[in-house]
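Just curious. Protein, please.
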Amino acid sequence: MRELSPRPNRSRWLAALALSTLGLWIARDAGAATEYPTRPIRAVVPAAAGGITDVAVRALGGRMRDTLRQTVVVDNRGGAGGLIGGEIVKNAGPDGYTLLYGHAAMLTFLPALKRNMPYQVMEDFAPIALCVRTPFAVVVRADAPFTMVRQMIDAARSRPKGITYGTAGVGNGSHLLGLMLAREAGGKMLAIHFKGDGPALVDLLAGQVDFYTAGNVRHYVDAGRLRVLAVTGANRWFVFPGAPTLAEAGLKGVELYGFSGFLGPKGTPSAVVNRVNASANQALKDPKVRETLTAAGYEMIGGSPAEFRAFMQREIDRVRKVGADNNLVID
């Protein structure tokens, strides 16, 4: 009788297969790190050219070209609050040659509030680097009766109809902050929605609304047309160093940021993520880049991909709570 061969050990076979697969992934990432990038990198910016997000990515990309030894080509794809640009990158190949330079609206505000999203931020993208962040300023007309946040809150509580605030649109940062302020202050604050910062500021200056929250108002403040009552960050903002934080003003539950940073499509090799992250962090240390970003009112952040992921999750959770508390859903 022929002797039967021993039956292969299935667990050993599976272990060998797993090690082989792991080896292929390691080799792929090692190869990506060695070769990447070999051609220009496309940075999709879900905002119009010339805007504050565009200013940041162009300053960073110009310096990153020196460390990556390839051009970072900015591709502006504004519209739909940034969703168009996000969808483009979601569907791109995860090879590191199409990246997203995303901002708060399309990475945290809309994902927390919109019913039907074309992407899921925490699942469809690989966070690379949180580059810059900016608080919001609570502003009133220079001749407004409020010189402190407390006076504005007292008016919201004492006036039969409360006070009004402008927003740049439903679900925008200015709207979310108004809802947060109303919750913490316990007074009546009615939102008046506009199509963007410009029209909202026009009506604020004309006396049609009582206050507004925005980041890009330095020109109006310097010209003596607006007064800053407070800012939303954890620390005072260098743009308006004399303005207290909302926490200092007694509203510790109100915190929200504008921000922007690099992400790749899901599945982008970790070696590519780390290389772009290192390049972005180095760019943030460059004196000329810092001068440009500081002039735009940005706080330089940087850090690891994991820190960027954690930051986005905190902001999404924060906005989601505001939406739940106010039955705010965007269709």
